[in-house]
Amino acid sequence: MAKQIKTCKACKVKFYGNQSRSYCSERCKNDHSIYTRREKICLVCGKTFKASSAAKYCSQKCKYEMSRRSHSIKKREKEKQEELEKRRLEMRRNGLSYAQMQIAETKAMYAKVEVRK
Ligand SMILES: [Zn+2]
Ligand SMILES: [Zn+2]
């Protein structure tokens, strides 16, 4: 490959390198790419930070926090599902059809929102 005199994009130092190179060193490449990264907002703490387009969190801590949260949400949903399944089983055991069961569920829902005097 043809080598030529280039100017480093980060530190402006002239260096002799391949045409495809834009930085004098790996260090400059890494430093400079930090500045050219886009500003993002952390999904966990709402802080702005600079990162590549794929990043969603400002730090490892926030990334961990998010995975912990989504895990507990999933767990809660699973528990809800299991609770529903248990009730259905119970109703089936009591000889209720699916339609009757739904009526019972609807009634139970309305009973909760009914204003009592
Ligand atoms: Zn440089
Ligand atoms: Zn964060």
SS element count, helices:
3
Question: What would you call the quaternary organization?
Answer: single chain
Average pLDDT taken over every residue: 84
Strand proportion: 15-25%
List all distinct small molecules, including ions and cofactors, that are bound in this structure. Answer: zinc ion
Query: By helix and strand content, what is the structural category?
Result: alpha+beta
**Radius of gyration over C-alpha positions, nearest whole angstrom:** 30 Å
State the major sheet: 2 strands, antiparallel
- Note the gap between the termini: 88 Å
Low-confidence sequence ranges: none
Give the tags.
single chain; 117 residues; alpha+beta; two-stranded antiparallel ribbon; two-stranded antiparallel sheet; 52% helix; rod-shaped; binds zinc ion
Q: How would you characterize this protein structure?
A:
With 117 residues, the protein is of the alpha+beta class. It has a domain at 1-36. 52% of the residues lie in helices and 15% in strands. The protein has helices at residues 26-36, 60-93, 98-113; strands at residues 3-7, 14-18, 38-41, 48-51. The chain has a two-stranded antiparallel ribbon. Strand 1 (3-7) and strand 2 form a beta hairpin. The longest helix has 34 residues, at 60-93. The radius of gyration is 30 Å and the shape is rod-shaped. The termini are far apart. The mean pLDDT is 84. One zinc ion binds at residues 42, 44-45, 47, 57-59, 62.
Present the secondary structure layout.
Layout: E1 3-7, E2 14-18, H1 26-36, E3 38-41, E4 48-51, H2 60-93, H3 98-113
Antiparallel strand pairs: 1-2, 3-4
